[in-house]
């Protein structure tokens, strides 16, 4: 008799695909699809689901959720991830008696089920698990113990768990780990632990081999959880664990940062301005989770603060139309491979002759201490409000700042926003991040680049964020290395939706837009202006309701908080 039988489930959140999300269903080639169990019942293997036919009920498990199949004597055990809520799964089993278990058809059926459940994903991934019990609002250890470890064990994953006790411990672990003994380092934390792991691997004498060999993955237990949102489309620990189990190794771009005499790696983002301050300036509010970023942002936009700086950029794609066309081409190539962006799609920058003892790749543009390379675009800004460069799309669950980011296109996405704009415009940008319209906001500059140098000026101190970690408030230089790292992703790329209407952009569209600009076409610009005015009016209505809501919330919570807009917030 089957244990823990479940009725047909509505597939939750981002986990909306079966194992066949990797591509088209594999040809069955005459293999058996149906076996008899418990005498009168049958198990049917179709293109996307495992179906138990009984009288009644009929129960279904998506192949994506099947973790393991074992045939021992006449007992067939199927481990799977059972939905126990809209955004949570847990390990469960179906156990059946199979009278003709010794026949080739039954054994072949069991093997076929496991093969189709995993697709191109590696089974039984060997995992080094790092749990940071102090991440974000806390609770990482419980999330691992309750939500994730049982799933890994049900999938027969060999695991070695370490609870981190101090900052920097993950660097030491990554420096010393035998990269050939594990398939992935799983970070149960916020994004900071992944930053440590990449830099630990990058500081080894065999950095190139280490970064190319062992994949980094993420169980979301922090405030931002950007890595999980991008690679797995979720910030729920159990759904991320399932995505790691069923995920594929994917080449991943990394960014070298040079500052002073130091070189480090960035996997997520670099920021100077309001985003950096909203993150690093709200460390005392970690108990709030991701809401602390919104609080920090609101505090600072009312100041209309600017961050003077000198910026030099190696621009590869200058305008938003070109960025969308680049994204469209990447996604078209990915569709042709039937595997996201393709785990083997990215060329790797390795230097002249890579070997097991090679360190990080040489820098193509030198360091921050070298002369500025020729051909870079120089910008001197007195009114920079936000300098933000990203390697992933989501910076938090509701913050898709870099909609056109790709896992291994060899390009960084650069966003710049003027700080000398109205508070209403700043609030509209905040709203546009949450509703997916940030990329198309006319106040946002969006470019694809390969390197840059930024030099703060007229400030003695401030915040610079690298992957959410504070670094000295000094000039730094960045350049990207295509496919240097490796991650476990759900489908070979990012789960973000991309810029709005990216699939409608063509080269002809880009040329037409450029022609309008070159000729000073009045009619299209006038139409655009009217459209922008209409949108602005709609946004103002939304902002009015939004601000009223904020005022009501602040009034209600004034007993507990004192919030000022001079960059300080104190608990009573």
UniProtKB/TrEMBL annotation:
Keywords: Kinase, Membrane, Transferase, Transmembrane, Transmembrane helix
Keyword hit for rRNA processing: no
Top-level taxon: Eukaryota
GO biological process, one term: sphingosine biosynthetic process
Zinc among keywords: no
Transmembrane segments: 513-533, 545-565
Gene3D superfamilies: 2.60.200.40, Probable inorganic polyphosphate/atp-NAD kinase, domain 1
Polar residues bias locations: 1-22
GO cellular component terms attached to this protein's record: cytoplasm; membrane
Chain spans, region Disordered: 1-27, 333-360
Stretches assigned to the DAGKc domain: 122-261
GO molecular function annotation: lipid kinase activity; phosphotransferase activity, alcohol group as acceptor
The name this protein goes by in its record: Sphingoid long chain base kinase 5
Organism lineage: Eukaryota, Fungi, Dikarya, Ascomycota, Pezizomycotina
């Amino acid at each position: 008799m089957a244990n823990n039988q479940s009725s047909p489930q509505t597939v939750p959140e981002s986990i909306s695909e079966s194992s066949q999300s990797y591509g088209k269903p594999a040809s069955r080639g005459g293999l058996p699809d149906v076996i008899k169990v418990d005498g009168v019942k049958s198990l049917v293997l179709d293109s996307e689901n495992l179906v138990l036919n009984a009288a009644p009920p009929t129960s279904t498990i998506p192949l994506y959720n099947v973790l393991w199949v074992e045939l021992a004597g006449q007992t067939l055990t199927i481990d799977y991830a059972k939905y126990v809520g809209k955004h949570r799964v847990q390990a469960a089993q179906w156990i059946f008696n199979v009278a003709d278990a010794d026949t080739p058809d039954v054994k072949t059926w069991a093997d076929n089920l496991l093969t189709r459940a995993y697709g191109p994903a590696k089974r039984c991934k060997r995992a080094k698990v790092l749990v940071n019990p102090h991440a974000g609002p806390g609770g990482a250890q419980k999330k691992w113990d309750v939500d994730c470890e049982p799933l890994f064990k049900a999938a027969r994953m060999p695991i070695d768990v370490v609870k981190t006790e101090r900052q920097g411990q993950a660097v030491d672990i990554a420096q010393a780990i035998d990269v050939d003994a594990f398939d992935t380092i799983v970070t149960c934390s916020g994004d900071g632990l992944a930053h440590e792991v990449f830099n630990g691997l990058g500081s080894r004498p065999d950095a190139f081999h280490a970064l190319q060999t062992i994949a980094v993955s993420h169980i979301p237990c922090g405030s931002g959880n950007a890595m999980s949102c991008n690679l797995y489309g979720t910030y729920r620990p159990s759904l991320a664990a399932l995505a790691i189990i069923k995920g594929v190794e994917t080449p991943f771009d990394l960014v070298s940062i040079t500052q002073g005499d130091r070189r480090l790696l960035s996997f997520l983002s670099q920021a100077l301005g309001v985003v950096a301050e909203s993150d690093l300036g709200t460390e005392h509010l970690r108990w709030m989770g991701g809401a602390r970023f919104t609080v920090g942002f609101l505090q600072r936009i009312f100041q209309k603060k600017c961050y003077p700086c000198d910026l030099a950029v190696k621009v590869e794609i200058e305008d938003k139309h070109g960025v969308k066309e680049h994204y469209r081409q990447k996604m078209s190539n990915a569709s042709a491979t039937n595997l996201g962006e393709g785990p083997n799609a990215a060329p790797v920058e390795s230097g002249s002759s890579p070997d097991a003892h090679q360190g990080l790749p040489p820098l193509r543009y030198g360091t921050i201490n070298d002369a500025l390379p020729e051909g870079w675009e120089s910008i001197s800004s007195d009114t920079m409000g936000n300098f933000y460069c990203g390697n992933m799309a989501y910076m938090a669950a509701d913050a898709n700042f870099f909609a056109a980011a790709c896992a291994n296109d060899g390009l960084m996405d650069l966003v710049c926003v003027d700080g000398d704009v109205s508070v209403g415009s700043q609030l509209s940008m905040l709203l546009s991040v949450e509703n997916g319209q940030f990329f198309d906001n006319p106040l946002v500059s969006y470019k694809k680049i390969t390197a840059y140098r930024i030099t703060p000026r007229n400030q003695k101190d401030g915040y610079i964020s690298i992957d959410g970690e504070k670094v000295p408030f000094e000039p730094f230089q960045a350049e990207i290395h295509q496919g240097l790292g490796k991650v476990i992703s759900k489908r070979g790329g990012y789960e973000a939706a991309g810029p709005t209407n990216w699939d409608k952009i063509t080269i002809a569209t880009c040329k037409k837009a450029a022609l309008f600009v070159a000729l000073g076409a009045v009619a299209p610009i006038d139409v655009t202006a009217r459209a922008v005015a209409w949108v602005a009016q709609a946004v103002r209505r939304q902002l009015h309701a939004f601000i009223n809501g904020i005022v009501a919330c602040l009034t209600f919570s004034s007993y507990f908080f004192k919030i000022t807009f001079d960059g300080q917030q104190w608990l009573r």
